[in-house]
Amino acid sequence: MLDRAPLPRQRRLWLDCLIATRMRDLTVELQSPEDPVDRQALIEGMLSHHAETYGDPHFEPFGLFLRDERGESQGGLAGRIRWGWLYVEILWVRKELRGQGHGSDLLERAEARARSQGCVAVHLETGGSLALPFYQKRGYEVVGVTEGFPPGSRQHFMRKWLSGQEPSDRVERPWTPVDAEVGRAAISYSNGNLPVEAFLELARRVWARDYDERAAAAALARTMNISAWEGPRLVGSVRILSDGYFFATVPEILVDPDYQGRGIGRELMRVALTVAPRGKLFFGAQPQSEEFFRRIGAVSGPVGMVIDATGLR
Length: 313
Ligand SMILES: CC(C)(COP(=O)(O)OP(=O)(O)OC[C@H]1O[C@@H](n2cnc3c(N)ncnc32)[C@H](O)[C@@H]1OP(=O)(O)O)[C@@H](O)C(=O)NCCC(=O)NCCS
Fold this sequence. Notes:
Distance between the termini: 92 Å
Helix content: 25-40%
Strand content: 15-25%
CATH architecture of the largest domain: 3-Layer(aba) Sandwich
Radius of gyration: 25 Å
CATH topology of the largest domain: Aminopeptidase
CATH superfamily of the largest domain: Gcn5-related N-acetyltransferase (GNAT)
Bound molecules: coenzyme A
Number of helices: 8
Largest sheet: 6 strands, mixed
Shape: globular
Structural class: alpha+beta
Low-confidence stretches: 1-5, 180-185
């Protein structure tokens, strides 16, 4: 049990002296740039302070990287999800590749990830006025301005409600990421990196056959890949092939046979529609999966056809 009786004066002086000595033992070190390990310790300290004050932020940092055929980075987005808000820390595309839709694609993918995690909003900062119309066109509104930073200009603080408007219950509603929701327990959805080994393991469980790993990796690199995970196990995936504007199709959707009938296919398609241009997907359904697509709301479109090079007359 703690002794809370006041300390005698002499002992108090001795304690003060000890604390002062300890304080004198501390040093302040300037690092420029800072050591990533020390920086991480700061982040963790701050996160645990925030968790004590506002509840668990379910902090999830993520990056989306635009790579060329040599795998070199040509741009990307760094995002952080906290308390159901996505903070876009960095969005950058190499100068030569601007004006080709890569920035909006990265932003849309980040928003889709935030939606799939149950986030309500996105916030970000942008200096100067150059990028302002880019964000405004995509539904971001200015909620604050700092004049004179950068010099001669201003910093804009921007926000976008992911459902199009402020949710009425957002202040009262405690946020938890979707994978913690009842009914979808332990399944988390991602539109980030899909490792080829995990994808082929899933594909073999659904359609047992030989797959060329290198060719499969190249195919995955060309599509947007939404995946469903139970811990480290890939239990479902849907790939979207799109020209980014007119058209998007689904090469395949796969759900692990042990996990079918639990709503994973429906959720994968819901997330897929958030990244498809104009929220539309055109695809051919195999006879055995037609009913699934109908159940989730797909309707018959133009009749699908296929032509094989050997059959060309
Ligand atoms: C088709 C597939 C993706 C469905 O995934 P799933 O996670 O099992 O589907 P869900 O649990 O989200 O099902 C959603 C609805 O469709 C129904 N459904 C799913 N598969 C069905 C099927 N084969 N036949 C009839 N209904 C089906 C479900 O009962 C559910 O209906 P409800 O909302 O009325 O309860 C999955 O079965 C699969 O991977 N199959 C093998 C690969 C394949 O054929 N892919 C499609 C062609 S690329």
